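Here comes my example:
=====
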Amino acid sequence: MPGSGSLSTRQGCNDDNLRAGSGVLKRMGMTGENLSSRNEPLRVAFEQHYIRMLGLAVLLTHSRENAEDLVHDTFVSAAVRIGELNDGEVGPYLRRSLVNHWKKSLRRKAVERRFQAAIPHGRQGEGDDLDDRDLLWRAIRSLPGQQRACVVLRYFEDLSERDTAEVLGCSIGTVKSHTSRAISRLRKEVHDDD
């Protein structure tokens, strides 16, 4: 592919990355006697696409460490389906999966920022992050079961309203209602604690 070598070189994707990638394979239990024919398509996909996926992830995240985590998460989630794909489908599937994982991480960060914005400025400061998280999780645990399930599935698992409704066996309107009530209650509890 034109220019693919220059992208890899610019992003530092070289033999060191492959060695680092083989460490990921080891952590995933995909070497030596643990490697079964069931894992072979994933191993092959990893060897063929790791460097390119890492280069894309570095461009998206602007961080080598975050990029490696993103690529690792992509291959772990792809492990279930990768053997079902044709050779020409693997690269696009991995790329789409990597971008989806990246978007999911951006949404989680946005939720965290919204929560931080809801906390009065007097509470924010160095070392307060753990206190804020503890406060939030205590408030979430105090929610009624359906509301708590909606909040956890929507914001922690990052499911859509439709997927949340499917998991809970209820309508989308019920998910919206429970989520809205839960968010209102959480805001009230977070502000009342101050």
Q: What stands out?
A: Residues 4-107 form one domain.
